[in-house]
């Protein structure tokens, strides 16, 4: 498995992470080593079949919602009813 | 002279019930031990004196039980209402949950005061407890060595006498491996036996909360408090749990214990092999039958685990965007900048590596070759375990190939750290229960742990096997200096 700088830049965009240019080389080497090891899985024969459905849904019971002020207490910036974020629409 | 905190949780519970000591006395002793020892060990991120005081004042209202009044310490990825829950990350350094995890509701109802929140690898991603934003945890048996991870704070605190008992979480060995490195007992229950509601998610299909304590009986008593169905966790199983404590008989006659040859080969320290095989022989002397077995999948478990775990991690950690809670970067120009800068500054290197790996294995063009293949191999692992457990009541193998490494050895090489998880990750991949019990000491003076693995739902049997060993031997007391 070859991982290059472009791959790491692409992945960091997907993951919404800014990797500094001087860190890309190290990140590329780390990922290449780990993904190279993961390649060993290719040699394993597939078993066939899809994973079984194991979900058991709970009954749809109405419960009280969390307190708005308690939830907003962890926001870095807020109004009285919502988090504040930088301008989204230009 | 034996101090208050040399007693097990059950002994302290009995002493409190008999009036020989009080819950307040024991809780104060824990706070005093933290003040005296934690500068060296760094097992705690925070103490919760206010919460403990509130609980102590209302102790009369708690349900009666063998652990009533016994303080417990909590890994800092389990939400505690009104008490900081940081996941050892700068991302959540100031996060105060507005609710309790299901296990916290249960321990409060059972009258166990919460003494504090325990250090760990950041977001439980690591096997050494060195990736914490709040500094590395040290192994109480040798301060130049790691305590294991990611529940390293839990194991180190119990081993150092800074906690009577603790709750940790185990995604790939994070309870069992630090228990082994620190010479204490750790139990990872069957997936779905303990609610994950309020456990900060790392890899949801593998995460499970469980106890870390001085011995198996304490772990069983804690399981009686925390196990049970919870509708808020869609993977919580609707099963009738026995009393795990009352299920401890110490009788292993007629049990068959499988010894997987793949777990005793090259790459495993000789001291570790010897101690774990001696542990198996002890079971034979107690009346159990040993059966050599093969686990053909062992070479596949590390890639399978790290593909599935990082895929789930990259998805789970996408919620940290700097908006609703958690770290927010300043001096940003746009919403995209806010997301990327908050995440880049808020997460540490190992977390970022795992997010990138997860993004890779889920990305277009690689999904089938990595994630889908890993899920397929996971089914094979589950099926093979199923075949083995038709012939055995449990398996025995080392918890880890070596004893605790030196601090710093793993930090620069993620891959070598991942490889040390080889004997613990299959248990999570198959949703099985796993128990780590101290079984001796290596030439370097460090504790060695044996791992017992059971079939899905065989938690009571597994704990009983561990109990039998600890009744017949005193490794768990010798290593802790209590013999």
Describe what this molecule looks like in 3D.
The complex is a heterodimer of chains A (90) and B (483). With 90 residues, chain A is mainly α. Chain A has a domain of 39 residues. Chain A contains three helices and no strands. Chain A is flat. Chain B has a single domain, classed as Amidase signature (AS) domain (Amidase signature (AS) enzymes). Chain B starts with 8 loop residues before the first helix and ends with a helix. Chain B is an alpha/beta fold and 483 residues long. Chain B has an eleven-stranded mixed β-sheet with strand order 1-3-2-4-6-5-10-11-9-7-8, with helices on both faces. In chain B, α9 packs across α11. Chain B is built from 16 helices and eleven strands. Chains A and B meet through α1 and α2 of A and α9, α10, α11, α12 and α13 of B.
Give the overall pLDDT of chain B as a whole number. Answer: 96
How many separate domains make up the residues of chain B?
Answer: 1
Q: How large is the radius of gyration of chain B?
A: 21 Å
- Mean pLDDT across residues of chain A: 86
CATH superfamily of chain B: Amidase signature (AS) domain
Please tell me what the overall shape of chain B is. Answer: globular
CATH fold name of chain B, please? Answer: Amidase signature (AS) enzymes
Percentage of β-strand residues of chain B: 5-15%
Continuous helix count of chain A: 3
Tell me roughly what share of residues is in helical segments of chain A: 25-40%
CATH architecture identity of chain B: Alpha-Beta Complex
The helicity of chain B comes to 25-40%
Structural class designation of chain B: alpha/beta
The assembly state of the depicted protein chains is: heterodimer
Q: Any idea what the radius of gyration of chain A is?
A: 22 Å
**Helix-strand string of chain A:** HHH
Q: What is the CATH domain class of chain B?
A: Alpha Beta
Strand content of chain A: under 5%
- What is the rounded distance between the termini of chain B? 12 Å
Number of helices of chain B: 16
Q: Class by helix and strand content of chain A?
A: mainly alpha
């Amino acid at each position: 498995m070859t991982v290059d700088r472009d791959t790491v830049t692409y992945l960091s965009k997907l993951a919404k992470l800014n990797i500094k240019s001087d860190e890309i080389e190290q990140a590329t080497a780390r990922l290449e080593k780990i993904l190279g090891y993961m390649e060993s899985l290719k040699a394993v024969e597939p078993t066939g079949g899809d994973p079984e459905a194991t979900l058991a849904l709970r009954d749809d019971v109405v419960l009280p919602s969390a307190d708005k002020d308690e939830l907003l207490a962890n926001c870095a910036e807020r109004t009285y009813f919502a988090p504040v974020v930088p301008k989204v629409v230009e | 002279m034996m101090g208050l905190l040399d007693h097990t949780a059950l002994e302290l519970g009995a002493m409190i019930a008999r009036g020989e000591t009080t819950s307040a006395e024991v809780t104060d002793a824990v706070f005093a031990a933290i003040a005296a020892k934690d500068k060296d060990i760094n097992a705690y991120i925070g103490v919760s004196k206010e919460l403990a005081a509130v609980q102590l004042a209302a102790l009369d209202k708690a349900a009666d039980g063998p652990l009533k009044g016994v303080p417990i310490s909590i890994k800092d990825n389990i939400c505690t209402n009104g008490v900081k829950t940081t996941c050892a990350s700068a991302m959540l350094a100031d996060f105060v949950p507005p609710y309790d995890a299901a296990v916290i509701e249960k321990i409060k109802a059972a009258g166990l005061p919460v003494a504090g929140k325990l250090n760990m690898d950041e977001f439980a991603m690591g096997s050494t407890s060195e990736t914490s934003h709040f500094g590395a945890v040290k192994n109480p048996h040798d301060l130049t060595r790691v305590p294991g991870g990611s529940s390293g704070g839990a194991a180190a605190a119990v081993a150092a006498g800074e906690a009577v008992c603790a709750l940790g979480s185990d995604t790939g060995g994070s309870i069992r491996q630090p228990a082994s490195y620190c010479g204490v007992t750790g139990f990872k229950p069957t997936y779905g036996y303990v609610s994950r509601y309020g456990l900060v998610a790392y890899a949801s299909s593998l995460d499970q909360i469980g106890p870390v304590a001085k011995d198996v009986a304490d772990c069983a008593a804690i399981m009686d408090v925390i196990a049970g169905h919870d509708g808020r966790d869609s993977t919580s199983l609707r099963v009738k749990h026995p009393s795990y404590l009352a299920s401890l008989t110490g009788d292993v006659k007629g049990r068959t214990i499988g010894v997987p040859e793949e777990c005793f080969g090259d790459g495993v320290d000789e001291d570790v092999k010897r101690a774990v095989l001696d542990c198996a022989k002890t079971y034979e002397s107690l009346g159990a039958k040993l059966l050599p077995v093969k686990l053909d999948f062992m070479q596949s478990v590390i890639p399978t685990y790290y593909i599935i775990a990082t895929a789930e991690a990259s998805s789970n950690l996408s919620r940290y965007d700097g908006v609703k809670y958690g770290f927010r970067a300043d001096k940003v120009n746009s919403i995209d900048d806010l997301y990327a800068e908050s995440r880049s500054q808020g997460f540490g290197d190992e977390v970022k590596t795992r997010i990138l790996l997860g993004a890779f294995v889920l990305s277009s063009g690689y999904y089938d070759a990595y994630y889908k293949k890993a899920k397929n191999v996971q089914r094979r692992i589950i099926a093979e375990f199923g075949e083995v457990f038709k012939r055995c009541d449990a398996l025995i193998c080392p918890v880890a190939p070596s004893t605790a490494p030196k601090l710093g050895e793993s930090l620069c090489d993620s891959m070598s750290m991942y490889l040390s998880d080889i004997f613990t990750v299959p248990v999570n991949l198959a949703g099985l229960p796993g128990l780590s019990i101290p079984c001796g000491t290596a030439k370097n003076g460090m504790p060695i742990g044996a791992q017992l693995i059971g079939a899905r739902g065989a938690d009571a049997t597994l704990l009983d096997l561990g109990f039998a060993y600890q009744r017949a031997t005193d490794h768990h007391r010798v290593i802790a200096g209590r013999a």
